[in-house]
Amino acid sequence: MKKEYVVVRIDASPDGAPYVVVSLQATKDFKESQGFPQSPYGSPGVMGFTNMDDMMKSLNKMLGGGGLGMPGNMTSMKLDMREYKELSLSVGDKVYLEISKAETTGV
Fold first, then answer.
1. Nearest alpha carbon to residue 9 among 82, 95, 98, 86
2. H and E: helices and strands count for the chain
3. How far is CA 51 from CA 54, 66, 89, in A?
4. How is residue 15 annotated by DSSP?
C-alpha cells in the first residue's frame, strides 16, 4: 500500500535526543483543511462563518483540529538526524509512504 502525504510540521525531539518528529497529513485531508473560511481579521485560530448552516457543516472538522490551526488526522514519524539530513525534508514537501507486510514462511 502506498499513500501520499504532505509534511505539515517538523519538531525537535522533546528530550533533546538526536532525532526529529515529522508530522504528515494525507494530501486529500490537507487540501480539504485549506478550504475553511478565514476570519476577516486574518487570525488562523478564528474561523468565520456566513451562516449557521456553514458552521454546523464544519463543526466536526473544527473539533477534530482541522480549523483550529492544528491539522486533524496527522501521522507522525521519528527520524534520526542522519535520515532527516539525507531526506532534506521541509514543511510543504510531498512524501510517499509505502507499507508492506513481511512475508513469512514456515510455522
1. 95
2. 3, 4
3. 6, 19, 40
4. T
Q: Which amino acid is at 38?
A: Q
Domain that residue 81 falls in: 2-40+61-98
**Amino acid 103: pLDDT:** 87
Beta bridge partners of 47: 38
Q: What is the CATH number of the domain that holds 71?
A: 2.40.50
Q: How many domains in the chain?
A: 1
Q: Do the domain assignments include residue 85?
A: yes
Cell reading at 7: 509534511
Task: Return the pLDDT at 33.
Answer: 63
**Residue 47 maps to a domain:** no
In the predicted model, is pLDDT for residue 65 greater than 80?
A: no
The set of cell numbers assigned to 53 is 448552516
Q: Closest Cα partner for 36 from 25, 44, 28?
A: 44
Q: Is the pTM of this model over 0.70?
A: no
